[in-house]
Amino acid sequence: MEMKNEEKREALLELMTKSNYFTKLKPEHKKDDSFTIPLKVSSYNELNMMVSDLLKASIILLNPEAKSFSSFTKDQNINVMTLLEIALQLLPEEEMELLDDLHKVYLEGDF
């Protein structure tokens, strides 16, 4: 039984090291075990618009009675495309591939 567990452990380690898994989160190299997530932007203006759209959408979602932003901002448009682009950049694609591989190992084994 111990030999079988060792084989499973080795198979899992091999899966995790064979590709570029765990690439989305970048270690901060601090004692608190925190990570950063890279977010690509073309300019400070684009970054500002992303943050602005996130804040506007949050205001609307938190206060459904807020019909306008007149007291918050002069620009009432929310660029949903920007919010979707942020979400796409944050998805951990490589890690999802690893989960698929680990699931296959799980299905083949008797865990």
Explain what this protein looks like in three dimensions.
With 111 residues, the protein is mainly alpha-helical. The chain is built from four helices and two strands, in the order αββααα. The protein is 56% helix and 4% strand. A two-stranded antiparallel sheet has the order 1-2. A hairpin with a 7-residue loop joins strand 1 and strand 2. Helix 1 (2-17) packs antiparallel against helix 4 (93-108) and helix 2 packs across helix 3. The longest helix is centred in the middle third of the chain and has 19 residues, at 44-62. The model has no long low-confidence stretch (mean pLDDT 76).
Strand content: under 5%
User: Share of helix among residues?
Assistant: 55-70%
User: Runs with pLDDT <50, length 5+?
Assistant: none
Rounded average pLDDT:
76
Order of helices and strands: HEEHHH
Q: What is the end-to-end distance?
A: 12 Å
What is the 3D form?
Answer: elongated
The value of Rg in angstroms is 21 Å
Number of strands: 2
* Main beta sheet strand tally, sense and closure: 2 strands, antiparallel
Name a few traits of the molecule.
111 residues; mainly alpha; two-stranded antiparallel ribbon; 2 strands
Gist?
This protein has helices spanning 2-17, 44-62, 80-90, 93-108, and strands at 26-27, 35-36. It is mainly alpha-helical and 111 residues long.
Write the layout of secondary structure elements.
Elements: H1 2-17, E1 26-27, E2 35-36, H2 44-62, H3 80-90, H4 93-108
Helix pairs in contact: 1-4, 2-3
